[in-house]
Fold each of these.
Amino acid sequence: TQLLEQSPQFLSIQEGENLTVYCNSSSVFSSLQWYRQEPGEGPVLLVTVVTGGEVKKLKRLTFQFGDARKDSSLHITAAQPGDTGLYLCAAYLIQGAQKLVFGQGTRLTINP
Amino acid sequence: EAGVAQSPRYKIIEKRQSVAFWCNPISGHATLYWYQQILGQGPKLLIQFQNNGVVDDSQLPKDRFSAERLKGVDSTLKIQPAKLEDSAVYLCASSPRLAYTGELFFGEGSRLTVL
C-alpha cells in the first residue's frame, strides 16, 4: 500500500495545454515536496510546501498544499516539451524518524 | 560545488552473485540516504544515515542487503546474494542535516540488472 498516491500515473498531452497532477494520502505530513526526474538522472527538487493551504508558483508551475496537510496538487499552465519527465511527490511523516517517502510518480509527456 | 557521486553507473550480474555500490555525498552533508527505484515506481527508502549512525533501516532486506558509512562520509551498499527482483536503480542522496523540510540532493544512480 502506497502512503502517497499520485494520479494520474501517466499523462500525455499536447504542447500549450494545461494539466494538474495530484498527490493524496490519509496521513498528515509536516511538509511535502515535489521533485522532477529525467531519464538517467536522480530526482531534483522543485518546491517544498509546509503550511496547510500554501500556494507556491515556479514560473508556469503552481503547487498547492491541502488545508489539512494530507494532499497536494501541481498545475502546469501552457505545457512545453521541456516539462516532460517523471514528477514525484514526497513527504516527511509528522511522527517518527525524519524520513522522506515518495509517491509512485506521474510520467508526463508533452508532445510538440 | 560537486554533486553526489555514485559508481558504477551500470552493473549486470547473475542471480546469487554479489554487487557493491559506492556513494560520495556532497561535502559537509551529514545525512545520507540509499533509495531503491524499480522501473515505473517511485524511490523506496532502504537506509538512512546521520553521520555514521543508522537513523532508519526498516525497509532494508537485511538477509541480503548491507550498508555502511565509515567515518561519516562515503557509503557502500552491498547485495549478497542478488535476486531477480533486485533489478532496479539504486539512488544515493544527501542533505545537510536531518530536517522535516530538508531538500535531498540525489546522485545519478546505479542501475542494476540481475539475470
Amino acid sequence: NAGVTQTPKFQVLKTGQSMTLQCAQDMNHEYMSWYRQDPGMGLRLIHYSVGAGITDQGEVPNGYNVSRSTTEDFPLRLLSAAPSQTSVYFCASSTPWTPYEQFFGPGTRLTVL
Amino acid sequence: KQEVTQIPAALSVPEGENLVLNCSFTDSAIYNLQWFRQDPGKGLTSLLLIQSSQREQTSGRLNASLDKSSGRSTLYIAASQPGDSATYLCAVRRNAGNNRKLIWGLGTSLAVNP
C-alpha cells in the first residue's frame, strides 16, 4: 500500500490564484480530513469527510472547499489564495473500525505571495 | 471544552538518557489517545495509540501510559538515541463513530545530543 499520498509537495501561489491540493489513500478508509499546521498554533482541522459524498467543516474552513466523489480521493481547493493561507497542509485518513487510528500524508508546503 | 497541553515545549538530553514526555487533557471523557512523531519538514507518523480502557501500550523502546482520572498521558523513551530527535505530538479522540475529530497538543520538540 502507498498509504496517504499528497501532491504537490511544494507550491507557490500569488494572491488571488486558485489551486487544488490532491490527496489519495489506498487503504479503503472512510474517514479523511485536511489539516493545516502553523508555528505556535499546532494542527487545525479544515474539513473532513466520513465517506464518499459526505463532507463537513472543521475549525478553520473559510477560504477552502472540499468534495469527496470517491472513497480514495479527497481534494482541497483554495478558491482565492491569500497570504494567511501560507502553511503546511496535511491530509489524513483513519481506519473505519475501532480504534480509528489516523494516518498522515507527507504534507504540502504552500506559500502565498 | 477539551484542551490538550504538552510540557515542556522543548527538551534537550544527552544520548542514552531515559526520558518522559507529558501530555495533559482537561476532559477525562476520551475515546482514545494517540502519540505521533514528526520529523522536520515531514508528515506525522503514528507511534502508539491507547484506548480509554487501557493503561499502557509498548512498542520497542517506547512506552505510553494513560491515566484518565488525572487527565494525563506520558510517553517514555528508553535509552534515547540521536535518531529520536523529532517533535512528539499527542492527540485525544473524543468519540468513536463518524465524529472522530482529534484534539491536538502543540508538541514537544526533542533533541538527543550525541
